[in-house]
């Protein structure tokens, strides 16, 4: 018998979630963000399900090339541009769009040759202080770009630090709007949180990521309330059952102590599968569709669960770690992290089962 853990990818949920993004930002083009192997969901089948997108954003040249070689003709944006000058050859060969956030990258573009023009997204730092030029550098950046023979369209871009939190986008949006912006330049600002909550940020291109995978970017609104459907369901099964006595300890470090005799289950899923080790006793989990909790520390390949609410459960009972019936955000909160980290952390050894 093979180990029962699987990540089931429901493609129809991607189609639904893209529609939610379209309805939220009806006047903008959509660049679906499929970096990090489509947030752990698998690049090519996700891109295919999202083929109605106006473009795709990825991080690595390898991902961009895989998309082109699979026949995708949409815009493909490299979210951090290129990391070396030699990568420019691949950019021009595959007609990719570039984020530009340093003068070095502009010099590399200047030296590149191509039959087609390359569109450039100028990354501006409006307050997150991660990547991007300072707003007052824009004129200088634009004139440096004018010296690049293969320069195509220019799009101004920024990224929000707190679109998903109480602070919102007000300050950064104000900085963006006060830019000395030459007429006719397009703009791209919004991540999922801004797509859903701040129409004033939508502009020409929106860049939803997490919402496409059916997770809510907000702490105070659930994915279901936003009309989003989970794409990944991480499933496994009970592989052992133990009857333990009051006072017995469970797992490494013995961090959980039974206060009465109880039945516990062992699930084939551990941190080497991408399940968070920081998920404490009490993290929600579904067994046979019934909600129960994890017990003690998560091991590398296994975790333990409380079978008290489901006394009938035997070896082989199906378990849902997250996904359909149990939101990944809820599990992430119990592990003091965010859904993004859990989805991206799916390990290679967890097979993807792709359903239409
Ligand atoms: C990852 C990323 C996004 C998508 O963000 P979500 O919060 O997942 O919607 C958008 N823009 C940039 C620049 C990113 O790096």
What key attributes describe this structure?
single chain; about 350 residues; alpha/beta; TIM Barrel; Lyase, Ornithine Decarboxylase, Chain A, domain 1; 2 domains; eight-stranded parallel β-sheet; six-stranded antiparallel β-barrel; 11 helices; elongated; binds pyridoxal-5'-phosphate
Structure, described:
The protein is of the alpha/beta class and 356 residues long. The chain contains eleven helices and 18 strands. The strands form three sheets. An eight-stranded parallel sheet has the order 8-7-6-5-4-3-2-9. The model has no long low-confidence stretch (mean pLDDT 96). The protein binds pyridoxal-5'-phosphate. Pyridoxal-5'-phosphate binds next to loops.
